[in-house]
Amino acid sequence: MSQAKVPVWVNVGLIPLINILLAFVVSALVILAIGENPIEAAGYLVYGAFGYDEGIGYTLYYATNLIFTGLAVSVAFKAGLFNIGGEGQAYIGGLGVGLLCLWLDASMPFWVIAPLAILGAFIFGAAWAYIPAYLQAKRGSHIVITTIMFNFIASSLMVYLMVNWLKEEGRMSPASRIFEENAWMPYLYELFEPFGIDIGDSPLNLTFLLALVCCVLVWGLIWHTRWGYQLRTVGTNATAAEYAGIDNSKVTIWVMLISGGLAGFVGVNEIMGVNHHLLLNFTAGYGFAGIAVALMGRNHPIGIVLAAILFGALYQGGAELAFEMPSITPEIVVVIQGLVILFSGALENMLKGKIEALFTRPVTA
Amino acid sequence: MFETIILILDATLRVSTPLILAALAGLFSERSGIVDIGLEGKMLAGAFAAAAAAAVFGSAWIGLMFAILASVALALVHGFACITHRGDHIVSGVAINTIVAGLTVTLGLDWFDLGGQTPALSGDGRFTSITLPFADALADVPVMGLIYSELISGHNILVYLAFAFVPATYWVVYKTRFGLRLRAVGENPHAVDTAGISVAFVRYRAVIICGILCGLAGAYLSTAHNAGFLKDMSAGKGYMALAALIFGKWRPVPVLLACLLFGFLDAVAVRMQGVALPGIGEIPVQAIEVLPYVLTVLLLAGFIGKAVGPKAIGKPYVKERA
């Protein structure tokens, strides 16, 4: 059975679609088990996510975070690395943004702070990914385990910094002071207002554009540069890459730097865009959700944007759903996310052979 | 001072128990070549099932049974993905952890309407502490009396069980035929296959054992250590058990010591809150909490000893075709 005989649309379109459908079918069974009507639930979900301007804004705001973490996971995937530390990298990226804003917001205008903060998010996120990358490349420790450990280390570090150094006097919860407004990423609705266009108040901000730019850059990097070629070669066959003269450990390190930096951009959206101060736990699982987004998006920027919007819609629609059907919690979205990872990731081979066999033309040997 | 030390060690045993159970669970799975980062999810599922069943049936033992069932079911999903369909072990583990994190809260809210928690357990719904014979009588004996009555006596059955599982695991893994095969499929599955033994069957049995032990760990959290299920109550203990497994280099006794060390750090961290040490000053709690992870990273990087896992770990076994 030769792979080449299977039509491309089956591999790129049909099989992923069937896997996602399976995940949704099982999710529907869960909703049925709770005693609610899955179709009605899906209706609320879609309405909540796309039915009105504000809903769409929220959907795209969630999608912004998911594009960053999805890209982060898939860049590493392409090089054969599993970066499970997006959560920690996003956390530390946010720390970078927060520190810059706290430092410069009183003295600098927005157009100085914004690029610096974006750079800071990238550098901090990348730095947090650098240590696991270095340890994998030079000391042979497994990147999956190290990045998991670094998620916990990031979490403890943040608690320590917030409680002991960055907490604003007189505040109950460990959070920094609110930044001056010139360190706020403008909301998109504010930018549309002068033109008389009302898109509804939502946290959607300019960071969304940064996410789209990142998609284009990642696409260019992976498929249209010499670096990307090296990256894909290492991911496909590390031994062959070594023989071809590609330095595997160098590739590992810079791929992880890019991956961590992309995850760090979550900090721009959350800290500069929405919260406007440093706080704990703003990453809220986006790092892990990025794995689902990358798997569903087949590690391609276009797929990732689509998958991120879908998951963003689930996040936003899930809130609406919980409001309309009180017996359902927003956590149902986490279940769906897990099922997508299961069916389009872990069980991707389950139906692949059978479906491919259906479309394989008999070849006379 | 002596009493404080005893109290810290006592707490160490309590905190270490779920780590020991989960780390031994991981030992069986990983020794057979199946990477398991789903310890966390299986433990959480066990905790939820135990608390839910104990609340409904009023018996901690029935709760334990359901915990094992839930956890083994998830272990079989992991096996189905990794063994039968040669899926990525890490992706499968992440899937299980994610599904459980959402599903426990979703079902909990629907069944009990307490915001995702289960009802508080009391009486037979919990595993209560067992006073060993003569514990009270010997309490006044200096030194040994305190050690016996405070440290050794007065734990629930699952704590003693966890410690008993360590020599049992050692025996199974190193002294039985199944153990030999288990280690062999983790190192060189082709050789095992050549000998006419099914690689898949050995691995499936390994993940089932892993499921049983994770179920016990979960039941401990919700029906022994606490009195009911709370959202995300495993709180990273599954990952810490994984760290202990690596730190103990996939061997039962060193794994036990790693779990005790991590448990001890946890117990000390709680005690040290706001306490200034002479000459050093106050050590931030977070610095102690983070030590298990830092130590594991250092060990993996070969800065303190060297951790080398089973050779065939994480690799799907594909039988060669003629």
Automatic annotation (TrEMBL), chain A:
<dbReference type="InterPro" id="IPR001851">
    <property type="entry name" value="ABC_transp_permease"/>
</dbReference>
<feature type="transmembrane region" description="Helical">
    <location>
        <begin position="89"/>
        <end position="106"/>
    </location>
</feature>
<feature type="transmembrane region" description="Helical">
    <location>
        <begin position="143"/>
        <end position="163"/>
    </location>
</feature>
<dbReference type="GO" id="GO:0022857">
    <property type="term" value="F:transmembrane transporter activity"/>
</dbReference>
<feature type="transmembrane region" description="Helical">
    <location>
        <begin position="12"/>
        <end position="35"/>
    </location>
</feature>
<protein>
    <submittedName>
        <fullName>ABC transporter permease</fullName>
    </submittedName>
</protein>
<feature type="transmembrane region" description="Helical">
    <location>
        <begin position="204"/>
        <end position="223"/>
    </location>
</feature>
<feature type="transmembrane region" description="Helical">
    <location>
        <begin position="278"/>
        <end position="295"/>
    </location>
</feature>
<keyword id="KW-0812">Transmembrane</keyword>
<feature type="transmembrane region" description="Helical">
    <location>
        <begin position="328"/>
        <end position="347"/>
    </location>
</feature>
<feature type="transmembrane region" description="Helical">
    <location>
        <begin position="112"/>
        <end position="131"/>
    </location>
</feature>
<feature type="transmembrane region" description="Helical">
    <location>
        <begin position="302"/>
        <end position="322"/>
    </location>
</feature>
<keyword id="KW-1003">Cell membrane</keyword>
<feature type="transmembrane region" description="Helical">
    <location>
        <begin position="55"/>
        <end position="77"/>
    </location>
</feature>
<dbReference type="Pfam" id="PF02653">
    <property type="entry name" value="BPD_transp_2"/>
</dbReference>
<keyword id="KW-1133">Transmembrane helix</keyword>
<feature type="transmembrane region" description="Helical">
    <location>
        <begin position="251"/>
        <end position="272"/>
    </location>
</feature>
<keyword id="KW-0472">Membrane</keyword>
<dbReference type="GO" id="GO:0005886">
    <property type="term" value="C:plasma membrane"/>
</dbReference>
TrEMBL record, chain B:
<keyword id="KW-1003">Cell membrane</keyword>
<dbReference type="GO" id="GO:0022857">
    <property type="term" value="F:transmembrane transporter activity"/>
</dbReference>
<feature type="transmembrane region" description="Helical">
    <location>
        <begin position="48"/>
        <end position="77"/>
    </location>
</feature>
<feature type="transmembrane region" description="Helical">
    <location>
        <begin position="89"/>
        <end position="109"/>
    </location>
</feature>
<feature type="transmembrane region" description="Helical">
    <location>
        <begin position="7"/>
        <end position="28"/>
    </location>
</feature>
<keyword id="KW-0812">Transmembrane</keyword>
<keyword id="KW-1133">Transmembrane helix</keyword>
<protein>
    <submittedName>
        <fullName>ABC transporter permease</fullName>
    </submittedName>
</protein>
<keyword id="KW-0472">Membrane</keyword>
<dbReference type="GO" id="GO:0005886">
    <property type="term" value="C:plasma membrane"/>
</dbReference>
<feature type="transmembrane region" description="Helical">
    <location>
        <begin position="157"/>
        <end position="174"/>
    </location>
</feature>
<dbReference type="InterPro" id="IPR001851">
    <property type="entry name" value="ABC_transp_permease"/>
</dbReference>
<dbReference type="Pfam" id="PF02653">
    <property type="entry name" value="BPD_transp_2"/>
</dbReference>
<feature type="transmembrane region" description="Helical">
    <location>
        <begin position="253"/>
        <end position="270"/>
    </location>
</feature>
